[in-house]
Amino acid sequence: MQKIKDLFSEKFVDNEIETRGWIYRWRESGKIIFIILRDSTGIIQVTVSKDMVGEEDFNSAKSAGIESSVIVSGILKRDERAPGGFEVLAKKFVLVGKSLNFPITKDKSDEFLLDMRHLWLRSREMTAILKIRSTVFEFLHDFFKREGYYEVQAPMFVSSAVEGGSTLFEVPYFGRKAYLTQSSQFYLETFIFSLENVYTVAPSFRAEKSRTRRHLTEFWHCEAEVAWIGNDEMMKIEERMIMHILDGVLKNNKEELILLKRDISKLEDITLPFNRMEYADIIKLGKDVGLDLDYGSDLGADEEYAITQKFEKPTFVIHFPKEIKPFYHRPDPQNPSVVLNHDLLAPEGYGEIIGGGERIFDLDELLQRIKEERLNPEDYSWYIDLRKYGSVPHSGFGLGIDRLVWWIAGLEHIKYAVPYPRNVRRLVP
Ligand code: ATP
Ligand code: MG
After folding, report:
1. Coil, strand or helix: which one is 139?
2. Are residues 146 and 227 in the same domain?
3. 219, 234, 282, 422, best to mutate for ligand 1 pocket (most atoms within 8 Å of CB)
4. Which of 420, 421, 405 is nearest to 139 (CA)?
5. Number of structural domains found in the chain
6. 266-310 confidence digits (pLDDT tens)
7. 424 found inside a domain
8. What is the H or E stretch that residue 125 is in?
9. Cβ-count burial of 297 within 10 angstroms (0-12 exposed, 13-18 middle, 19+ buried)?
10. What does residue 52 show for φ and ψ, rounded to 5 degrees?
């Protein structure tokens, strides 16, 4: 039994082969049925003629609809007219699972394809995206393994917010209120006292009501936390990580990127170091491109889209005003009105894929910031504890993995980067 991709080889020409998959295209022309067969590795033309397969198999091929699963054996031939230059002349055609009236036909609406995601995953576009996504996860883990990190797991049921109350999903919890985690950061900070360098890959949940190209309510979050390092070192780690993943995709998924019509040169041209820009300068740049921004404005999807349109490299935005960032970011000792943080903006209009920075490690400073933000210290008691028993300087980040796939694959909307996207309206399939 051969995988379809392996058939594209001179060594099989005029030889017997056997392969299996699903019917991607079907066409009858006189006494011959032309089938394009698909498996996880590719597509190939199969010709079924009554003379070669006999009446029974021919009738099977005739009745098999689009997406039927089949096993074919026959002779591999060169044929310049066939896609890829090879075809299989069937000698035996076995219908394994019939498929009648496959609901997805040409030119269906986006909503329909989302309703049919369980079947649309078989499309060549989704298959390509899923392969790229798999490479991204693989090289992400590979990066941390190479750099000596421990992988850890934090709970998904939590009792308080990390990123602000408005996007918390509340769930009933045995007569109490619990929430789905927005970020594992606080838990990750607890691990550094034993493991020093840790990371996790897990879903995060945010009740995002805004409709943007980049927000889901459930997304895959890679978070890392590292003891004894500051913001600059953290950014260097992230650069290496993103480059490692980019290299991995460029090495393993050229075919998929081409199928998705991604301009590959834009990815190939990216080199280290990434750009670094002060928040204050980003605001100036935003004004130059016509945005209504002031120092102190937060940057959302629309603003970052306009700002990064002409960027060719990922760009770190550093030194945000402390008022627009969560309380745990460490104010810069040189200028305490800004924090030692960074957002990493992907180029070509994609915008934020990472948020990170140095955490406050001094107990009094943390309590002060909690007070300033009018938060209740009791809600953060165990987090505050970490500053009482051998606190150390440390930094971390959160990477939206779906956003990384969205940018690398050059997709229009994040919903295409995820097999089963979740947003305000969508919970099925
Ligand atoms: P945004 O400003 O886009 O809402 P954020 O600043 O709230 O994002 P962080 O809290 O910094 O996001 O989360 C870390 C990373 O997680 C982000 O850089 C992004 O890549 C990803 N992320 C955050 N929210 C979402 C979401 N709703 N859907 C997909 N990815 C997300
Ligand atoms: Mg952020």
Report:
1. helix
2. yes
3. 219
4. 405
5. 2
6. 999 999 999 999 999 999 999 999 999 999 999 999 999 999 999
7. no
8. helix 124-146
9. middle
10. -90, -35
Q: What confidence tier does 211 reach under pLDDT thresholds 50, 70, 90?
A: confident
List the residue whose alpha carbon is closest to atom 21 of ligand 1: 400
Cβ 25 vs Cβ 66: under 8 Å = yes
Closest residue to atom 6 of ligand 1, CA basis: 355
Q: Does 361 reside within a domain?
A: yes
Q: In the chain, what percentage of residues exceed pLDDT 90?
A: 97
Whichever domain contains 413, its CATH number is 3.30.930.10
Query: For residue 385, how many other CB atoms are within 10 A of its CB?
Result: 12
Identify the sign of the CA torsion 414, 419, 422, 426.
Answer: positive
Q: For helices 124-146 and 231-252, give the axis angle rounded to 10 degrees.
A: 140
Q: Ligand 1, residues 201, 215, 222, 305: which to mutate, most atoms within 8 A of Cβ?
A: 215
Dist. CA 281–CA 290, nearest whole Å: 14
331 to each of 142, 306, 365, 389, how far by Cα in Å?
A: 33, 28, 9, 21
Cβ atoms < 10 Å from Cβ of 65:
12
CA–centroid distance, residue 72 to ligand 1 (Å) = 47
Q: 166: which DSSP letter?
A: G
pLDDT exceeds 90 at position 108: yes
Q: Look-up: residue for tokens 């950061």? A: 185
Question: How confident is residue 160, by pLDDT bands cut at 50, 70 and 90?
Answer: confident
Query: Residue 20 is encoded by which pair of tokens?
Result: 């299996």
SS3 content of the chain, % helix, strand, coil (to 5): 35, 30, 35
**Encoded amino acid at 178, one letter:** A
Cβ neighbours for 163, distance < 8 A, ≥ 6 positions apart: 182, 183, 206, 326
Q: Atom 11 in ligand 1: which residue has the minimum CA distance?
A: 355
In which domain, by residue range, is 44 found? 5-97
Closest Cα to atom 24, ligand 1: which residue? 215
Cα of 315 vs centre of ligand 2, distance in Å, is 14
Q: Does residue 238 have a pLDDT over 90?
A: yes
Helix axes 231-252, 401-408, angle to 10 degrees: 50
Give yes or no: residues 403 and 283 share one domain.
yes
Q: What are the pocket residues of ligand 1 if the criterion is a CB atom closer than 6 Å to any ligand atom?
A: 163, 206, 208, 214-216, 219, 221, 352-355, 398, 400, 402-403
Q: What is the mean pLDDT of the chain?
A: 97
The pLDDT of residue 382: 96
pLDDT of residue 30: 85
Structure-block tokens of residue 209: 């009501």
